[in-house]
Amino acid sequence: MTGTATETAVVAKRVDDGTPETEEIRDLVRAAGYEVAAEVTQSRTADPALQLGEGKVEELAVVVDETDADRVVFDNRLGPYQTYNLGQNLPEDTEVVDRFRLILDIFGQRAHTRKAQLQVELAELRYELPRAEAKTSLAQRDERPGFMGLGEYDESREQDIKARISRIRDELENIEKTEQQRRETRRESGFDLVALAGYTNAGKSTLLRRLAEDVDVDENEDLHPDLDTTAESQDKLFTTLGTTTRRLEMERRNVLLTDTVGFISDLPHWLVESFKSTLESVYQADLVLLVVDASESIDEIREKLTTCHDTLYERNEAPIVTVFNKRDAVDDDELDEKMAALSALAPNPVAVSGLEAINLDELVERIDARLPERERERLVLPMTDDTMSVVSWVHDHAYVRDVNYGDEEVVIDFEARPTIVERSHAKASELVAEA
Ligand SMILES: Nc1nc2c(ncn2[C@@H]2O[C@H](COP(=O)(O)OP(=O)(O)OP(=O)(O)O)[C@@H](O)[C@H]2O)c(=O)[nH]1
Ligand SMILES: [Mg+2]
User: Fold this and answer.
1) How far is it, in rounded angstroms, from Cα 296 to Cα 126?
2) Res 185: pLDDT
3) Where is the Hflx-type G domain (predicted)?
4) Which helix (H) or strand (E) holds 123?
């Protein structure tokens, strides 16, 4: 590694048949802070020892040598032995990394909150565990005396990893509990929870900035530089890692809008698992806005939408509104064509531009329409010392249509979530009991 100039990477990819697409892996390499020096691709069945065919690996070695690249990034998943064998066949000190390790690196660079850091560490340990296990079993099978020490070492390393995994899980569980309580408190306060979801780089953070007030309601606002109104939105994958929640100003409702980590295809189970509590804000929402980049090709949008649906269907119960973002970058005919082609996956979408603030009113209307129904209620409150505090509680938790103050009573007409209406009944009966 040179350490001075930008480090460079050669991208490698193998597909069983057809043409290898490298656009996304190139974007990921850049998101990790590397420059793409060259690419080497192949269409054939996987080689068990080297992933690529032997001749292709020779070609790769030449390319690495010529470009003086620091690392090779495979879009394919590499087994521990493939990584080792490739290292042996490439110029000395060439780092060999696969798609998953690369995504982990990116997450590691962006993890600013305690929770994100724990999640990255958990994912790293889960990545490492099978490798440590493989080493242990190899060393144990090897009966040559000199190797016994290695076996013991690796076994304790394996135990170490397991212990740390369980400690991190406990700490993450505690954080989750706190977050769950916070969501419940927010619901009880009459807020509807709306989550932005979608493939990475679709424009979720840009939309959040456009739609919602500048104030974060979570305590860690300084940890989300990408959401700063003065900051540029980055054309990079995984700009956002944690979650940020802001108030969305709506006439009849109190809405909290949450932005979170983007989805990406081909994530291994252990990585998804490590980040699942971040997605809890999506799973627990009252409504999900599924953002797609409408400027991409129909096939690309379809693939990404499928990835998103697969991730969502596991747990999500909330209604989904598909948002065709970057509307400014497509003309009307093209947009109609795309919407028609994708109508099975994305029925009745809303087309907007977060960047150019196009059609956001329609999106807000749709949010209002698809959120859970409000109940309309009219309460007659007897006038006691506590009546005004109940009236102000209703103002805080509901949309008040009308209040009439009489000498003996106050009549308040409002709309709210069913649970809020229920609680207002309890408060009203207390007043009646006092009067
Ligand atoms: N043309 C156009 N570009 C947009 C629009 N919205 C976002 N972008 C650009 O798309 C890129 C990604 O935007 P972000 O808002 O960071 O996307 P994200 O979905 O939050 O991405 P991650 O946090 O990385 O998952 C940035 O370069 C934005 O400027 C839009 O409506 N039109
Ligand atoms: Mg973002």
Assistant:
1) 34
2) 86
3) 192-375
4) helix 114-141
Check whether 357 has a pLDDT greater than 70: yes
Does residue 343 share a domain with residue 225? yes
Residues whose CB is under 5 A from ligand 2 (ion)? 204-205, 239-240
**Pocket mutation for ligand 1, best pick of 355, 360, 363 (most atoms within 8 Å of C-beta):** 355
- Average pLDDT rounded to a whole number, residues 154-162: 83
Annotated binding site for GTP: 198-205, 259-262, 325-328, 353-355
Q: Are 389 and 245 in a shared domain?
A: no
For residue 364, give Cα distances in angstroms to 64, 187, 262, 286.
51, 19, 22, 14
Spacing of C-alpha 190 from chain mean position: 25
| Cα distances (Å, whole numbers) of residue 113 to 20, 110, 119, 201, 215 | 36, 9, 10, 21, 18
With a 6 Å cutoff on the Cβ, whether 200 touches ligand 1 is yes
Tokens found for residue 139: 């060393």
CB atoms within 10 A of CB 267: 17
**Ligand 1 atom nearest 354 alpha carbon:** 31
**What's the average model confidence in pLDDT over 5-22?**
93
**220 pLDDT exceeds 70?**
no
Half-sphere exposure of 397 (CA within 13 A, CB side): 24
Clarify whether residues 404 and 286 are in a common domain. Answer: no
Q: CB within 8 A of 138, min separation 6: which ones? A: none
Residue type, 356: E
Report the C-alpha gap between 292 and 201 in whole angstroms: 9
What was the pLDDT predicted at 146? 42
